[in-house]
Amino acid sequence: MSPTISYKDSSRQRRPAGYHQSMDMQIKPPPLTVCGDNHAETLGDEDTEALLQGPNLPAYVVPRGYRAELGSILLLLFLYVLQGIPLGLAGSIPLILQSKNVSYTDQAFFSFVFWPFSLKLLWAPLVDAVYFKSFGRRKSWLVPTQYILGFFMMYLSTQVDFLLGDEGKSPDVVALTLTFFLFEFLAATQDIAVDGWALTMLSRENVGYASTCNSVGQTAGYFLGNVLFLALESASFCNKYLRFQPQPKGIVTLSDFLFFWGAVFLITTTLVALLKKENKEVTPSKEETKGITDTYKLLFSIVRMPAVLTFCILILTAKIGFSAADAVTGLKLVEEGVPKEHLALLAVPMVPLQIILPLIISKYTAGPQPLNTFYKAMPFRLLLGLEFALLVWWTPKVQHEGGFPIYYYIVVLLSYALHQITLYSMYVAIMAFNAKVSDPLIGGTYMTLLNTVSNLGGNWPATVALWLVDPLTVKECVGIQDQSCGTTAAAEICTKLGGSCVTTLDGYYVESIICVALGFAWWLLFGPKLKKLQDEGQSSWKCKRTK
Asked: Is the pTM of the predicted complex or chain greater than 0.85?
């Protein structure tokens, strides 16, 4: 419903299992599984069952409770909080840009910033395979990446006001996009390293806490970088709720926020580099010892399997119907006068719902046909797209001098809650299906590939939806005859001549109707085909290994 909603969790997925190969020592790769039409080829001569075995732990290791590893758990939690900061900041930029009246074409260009977390599979094998053994497999990437992030944030703090267009200038959207794309690329690389380290930092008895640290830490970091920042950056919010004397600016500026967290990154990274040692007792499993080239060959061979290829095509097009509602609605509400910090704060009461929903929905997706839940939830989510369009149309009609009435925010909150129910129903169903069909022999790589495709299926329609808003919008120049407002240059001429550009047809409404129509067409034509994939035998998804 807003950038803070649309992009938050769509790009997080489990990274592939590690690929143990250091710059100090090369380890002979195991047999390579090459998937195909119900057959596979194995390159090598090692035991095929060994891939299923876990790490070789000494027999004398005594199980440890979580209290014995509380320091490691807290460190993981904090590393994931740091990871959420760049995600939250990137999610706040579209709202800031919208308040500066940038075009939706510019918003579409900036949306590429959210792609790195969905594409990290492309360089995850490199992060897992190349490292300095003497320094540590995960620290070899975590420490330099976080140092770069820290220095980058501190430098960006001196430039961000200029990039956002201070002193009445227009924002430099191209420079902002390139800057934050690099920002998110570094954060995604840090995510790969932290995810890998989480598996060895904790003992086997406590490794389950890693996923808790991930979800709680990243959510907290996103909240700090998005919701809290937007609230403290807003002069109106601070003057109304936090100050006795009004001030022209908020308590925190974006440059202050970047500088502070840049310093936190540098201090934390230094402490981790000096004080935290990696666990050298853990021996990587054979799935973790593939070479880089073998890993990419494996990914390509998985995609070539007919069932996987069909799934990829279907899931890459399944979310077209939601693109206008998910990517544009929040920006339209800001355009209509809803304060961006109020829109961000609506995410706070949704946190309990977001925690409870997966637990409830998983009861319906745990069976043999999880995609039935996806199929049933889809039409309700499509109809909510029309409800969002009505909400945007209704917004200026209830606005008054003091802002918006309480009942308006209640309606927005209820709409958001219904949206979350349908969104999580589809999300949990897809994750359950991916886990169900992933070949356990290469589970990490296989499931990460499927999740990556699912995430890309949401990213590209959002970018296209933002880009299409301006071309579909019709404006006319009022007050000047024979003058149009079809382009930015024409609109400027209209204004200079004393006229004004008035929107006669908002492209958002056109796009909303088109998207919902395309979504229902997909649901009727291709929805049954997606459900039918559940009837495929296990041999259609598994990579068989032969000597």
From this structure: no
